[in-house]
Records
---
Amino acid sequence: MTANRHVNVRSTAEPKHRENDVIRLLGRQTSGNVQKVIFCLEELGSPYVREDYGRQFANTLTEAYRKLNPTAKVPTLIDGELVIWESHTILRYLAAVHGPTLTGATAAERTMVERWMDWLLGALNTPYVAVFRDAKKVPAERAPDFAAQSADLLAQLKILDGHIAGRDWFALNRFTIADIALGSIVKRCLEFPIERPAYSELERWQTAIDARPAFAVAIGAKPSQAY
């Protein structure tokens, strides 16, 4: 169930969480960054409601939404009186407050989880966005740097493939928010209609991600039972 309701502005000062509050996730289902948060919420089994915001809904530029999220992007998460934006910040919060087993128990362990989340944004995201934008276009309509961006994307996927070799998960030998952050983005990268080598280890990991019921909900392959 989705809703396209007016957003009530909430203060981010001294947030108070009430146990009976249902988490609100503002963002369209098709956004890769929103899918990360859905994946996490579904893994946690936390009650939540997702509301359609962004792109075709043309509702993130309103004054009310900008007061929640000054970037006018999605996702935005509202938990009680706390408003959070930026998908990886949301994942860190959800793990810390609602699912500590999804992150490290110590500061040192958290670095092992969060470095892959930061690497995704710092290294993989730029070529991912470039190839996502142009991969389905005919060559004459692609950006001049498409070949370079594609090569960069493949180089980053090779890094992932090398790291996951012999491992089930990206950090701490267990499923964490590192895997959650990477899941929907890597799936798209592996499915882009471009020539690439086989990444057998990464594809094995992606198969395990695809098999998780929470991920199926995140990418819209099955409905959520959370709300």
Note: The first helix runs from residue 32 to 44.
---
Amino acid sequence: MKYNKQLFGNEAASETTTGFDKGVYCDFSANAVKALAGKDILLAVWNAEGTAISAIAGQQSLKLNRSADSIEVTTKDTGDGWKAYIAGSKEWSIDTDGLYINTDASMQALSTAFENGDPVCIKVYNKKTKKSMFGGLAVITDFPLEAPYDDSMTYSISLKGQGKLVDLSSNPVTPDTLPA
């Protein structure tokens, strides 16, 4: 690897060399350096008109579920008495929860969609890299609010995908609209 020398106050700063003691103990290509922090991954929702996108307020967790049905294709000549399967139809869903902030545009959009039974257009994105990760159309299947006596008011939302979940890392859109 080539790195700029970090010789502060020296004209040789633009000279390149193998730095960091030749990478002996600072391996910037290691998988740990490339790992994503969960705190940077957010769920956003478009308004009903598709003109504004907002990160869902107060988020504390996000779980993206992807699964496929299994279709049994076992026959008498399938090897050694073991069953065989192929993948069937796929589906996706998202579960998120957090602190309930009823005045936020995202909560208002989700509440309206839930009350009307309308689908919502969602996007999962990395706020640190400012890159979209996934997007799709979903219906809200569960939206409870909890207000315990001795804690903050919270929400949970379960979204069930309608159609394909688009991998926006592999299929980027231009422009890549993200919440402000």
Note: The chain has two helices and ten strands.
---
Amino acid sequence: MKSWPGSQYRLYRMNRAFREEGIRKGRNTGKAILTNTGLSTYNKGSNREESGAMGVDKRYELFCELLKTMDEGVDAIDEYDSLLHDYQGTILYQAESQIIKAVGDQPGITASELSREFHKTNSACSQLIRKLKKKEWIRQERNEKNNREYNLYLTDEGKVIYKKHEDFENACYERTYHMLDEISEEEMRTYIRIQNQLNRAFKLDVEESRQLSGNGGAD
């Protein structure tokens, strides 16, 4: 079996975070600001001649379909993340298994580092760590350089859970990989190029929102 990378759905969760934090104006009303395409404003109720050629309309419809398809995938991932999973007899939520994987991948990682990695509050992350410590899957050692921090490690039982999670994740990856057997390498490269451009747009949305928050929001 191949060794599959990281968390299978981290990219999709990241995209959802970008889009929810950013300003995605009027997607459900048929209006959008399309600065990256050179269009100023598109309104489905406006005159076709004013909004551009029919080819532009079809391109915009494809763009909307692309975002809708992405949303459907992310919604499925969000639901998956909220459910319990069976790791060869060990039942865990996704958030718990993510912490175990991160500690197993990076022995000695701290709670604050986990919080930044998973974009969680320190309180939420600490609550998960306490839960896993209570199950005796994670142990902590005081940081020699900073007495206020603890380094996290897997216990022997935690390492067993880590291996179960790894096997489970590899099986998920392999199934998804083979579901794309009919997709060519060139099509994959095209998808990656499109996704990278979308990620740039999402990050611009995030930056605009952060600037808005920094200015105190709307009047």
Note: Strands lie at 31-33, 41-43, 84-87, 90-93, 138-142, 150-154.
---
Amino acid sequence: MKRALTILWLLALAAVSPLIFPIAESGRSSMDVLAKLALLPAAALLLITVGLLHRVDDSLARLSAAGLAAGAIATVALEAIRLPGFCFGFMPGNLPRLMGVLLLNQFAAGPSLTSDIAGWAYHFWNGATFGLIYVLIFGTCHRWVGAVFGVVLGFGFMFSPVVSALGVGFLGLEFSKGFPLTVTFAHAAFGLALGWLSAAWLGFVDSPMLGAVRQRLPKRLVAQGFSPPGPADRP
């Protein structure tokens, strides 16, 4: 039970960062307020929790650190597709720059070096938290799951209040037919890189979340179909 609660705690803290942008764009609050009240406290608590897990030599510490690092680095793969898409006019704006302006509440003044740094830091932290979420829920047994995870994130973004606030129409098609393609391929690249990096660093690890659930199930149910995949089941 303790391990399952720890995983849920980590997942809850990791989910805060990706959620504040769509919440702000839905009009429920401003991003600078959400950053102060939710983003920064959640990020601090997440890092403190991983540090404490490392001190007690919990395996979740290594999984969490690897997931965070893999997600941050995989964001480079996403940018390798998103930035050219933006330059070719497939995207309506530079989202990291916009997020920085919103984080520092300087929309009227416009972007600055400080807001750009804040926006890009938030962008990469989002990638890191998605990496943590991926590793804790899915493990690393199947690299292709990373690509599916990335595509799901892309569609989640396109159906979020962020795209609605940009005024680009359904799936961004009113702005450019290249919008949904850029978003989908960029997030698929993120997921592929995430799946490959996490597997390379951690080996084939079964889902920590499912593993914690199995520990709470009766042994009879585990024996009938809830056991971890064996070596023959792995790619």
Note: The chain has a mean pLDDT of 88.
